[in-house]
Design goal:
- By secondary structure, the protein is of the alpha+beta class.
- It folds into 2 domains: 2-259, Lipoprotein localisation LolA/LolB/LppX (outer membrane lipoprotein receptor (LolB), chain A); 276-390, Phosphorylase Kinase, domain 1, CATH 3.30.200.
- Helices cover 17% and strands 36% of the residues.
- The strands form 3 sheets. An 8-stranded mixed β-sheet has the order 12-1-2-3-4-5-6-13. Strands 14-15-16-17-21-20-19-18 form an 8-stranded antiparallel β-sheet.
- A hairpin with a 2-residue loop joins β20 (362-368) and β21.
- The chain is globular and about 60 Å long.
Length: 392
């Protein structure tokens, strides 16, 4: 696909995206299809398997049937009827065109969902709330050597990349497999240190075409993926533009999420600052940032956000195991309490807080002395609650 061809390598980029998504607590997706009985490719070293795949023919389009399972939220982590295919799991279909546009359609008893994207924007329609969420994507910038005429990365370049990646993560070899009836290679990646609750990620790709077929995210100690998007059938061929240009129903509520290209450090006329002393001077409220939090050293303090209402970001620890604290004056525009107020209540030293606990991390929100706090990290809820109590 042209959009994927602009990356240094389709497969290596997806490996990094999968791990990064787990670190942000975002909705990481796993694509898996049961194997057995289909064709398998010959054994190859990992670098060679990647090189040969990205050098293969580019499909003119992709059509697939999928099944999505979400095990991210333990029982009781969310209140009420979630009512969304994205939250409770579903089955559906996937279309991707040669120019990078696509549509993911999910149906379930809890409610349908549809994700539509192109090079400029992405929209997510949730039928359970009749709401469409829209965001503008960052403009793609071509780099020297990149573009539709650029060839695949050299075998030595892939080997160097894997060597550097191996300093931070443990990589398996390219394991021959078959996914959705196609010969594929599978690789596992797991953090060597500071991995938080992440156990490992797995990726399988079409051995001949380099198209990702299987990405799976596992929590520590779990033998089943936390999230799974299973391709039960997949075929290659031209996809009409009409298949990926679907509009939400009339009357749907629209929420514009803005541009994902905006950087947190851009503060709309008020310059962002770094360092504890500078952040305290600029914040306009008492900034709480002890030297350590639940044994993790403080690594960074800075102001972030837009407008003149300062938000302070404090980071403890490193890597996927880092703990992030967001502080802002209560009542500021865009305060986090509104987004989290429907979550289960907890007590933070006698104060009412709200907690989102998942198998990959925990988010807690509370208010103390006129300041709103949000604490997030890839750690169990008990450890996150202890950190919240110690933040004073």
């Amino acid at each position: 696909m042209k959009l994927l061809r602009t990356l240094p390598t389709r497969l290596l980029a997806l490996l990094l995206v999968a791990v990064a998504a787990v670190a942000a607590g975002a909705a990481a997706i796993a694509v898996a299809a049961s194997g057995g009985g289909g064709p398998t490719p010959p054994p190859k070293p990992l670098a060679r398997a990647i090189h040969d795949a990205v050098a293969g023919p580019e499909p003119s389009g992709i059509t697939a049937r999928i099944t999505f399972t979400n095990r991210l939220f333990p029982s009781g982590a969310l209140l009420g009827n979630v009512g969304s295919a994205l939250m409770s799991g579903a089955s559906g279909r996937l279309w991707i065109t040669n120019d990078g546009a696509g549509r993911l359609e999910l149906q379930s008893n809890a409610g349908d969902a549809q994700v539509v994207w192109n090079a400029k924007r992405v929209s997510v329609y949730d039928a359970s709330s009749n709401t469409v969420y829209r965001a503008t994507l960052p403009r793609h910038t071509k780099h020297d050597g990149a573009g539709k005429n650029a060839g695949p990365p050299a075998l030595s370049e892939i080997g160097d990349f894997l060597a550097k990646l191996g300093d931070q993560a443990a990589l398996s070899g390219a394991e021959p497999s078959d996914v959705a009836g196609h010969a594929a290679y599978r690789v596992s990646i797991s953090p060597k240190h500071d991995g938080g609750l992440l156990g490992k990620a797995q990726l399988a790709w079409d051995a001949a075409r380099g198209i990702p077929l299987d990405v799976a995210i596992y929590a520590q100690g779990s033998s089943s993926p936390v999230l799974e998007l299973k391709a039960t059938q997949i075929s290659y061929g031209r996809v009409p533009a009409s298949d990926v240009a679907i509009s939400p129903p009339r009357g749907a509520k629209t929420i514009d999420l803005g541009s994902v290209a905006k950087e947190a450090g851009h503060s709309g006329g008020s310059k962002a600052v770094s360092g504890l002393a500078a952040a305290r001077a600029a914040a306009g409220f008492p900034v709480v940032a002890p030297d350590t939090l639940v044994g993790l050293p403080r690594r960074d303090v800075r102001t972030v956000g837009t407008g003149h209402s300062k938000t302070v970001l404090v980071v403890y620890g490193r890597g996927l195991g880092a703990l992030v604290v967001v502080e802002r004056k209560a009542g500021s525009q865009g305060q986090p309490s509104g987004m989290l107020s429907s979550l289960p209540k907890i007590s933070v030293d006698g104060l009412t807080g709200h907690e989102l606990a998942t198998q990959l991390g925990t988010v807690i929100q509370w208010r103390r002395a006129g300041v709103d706090y949000v604490l997030a990290g890839s750690l169990p809820s008990a450890a996150a609650e202890a950190a919240a109590r110690d933040l004073r």
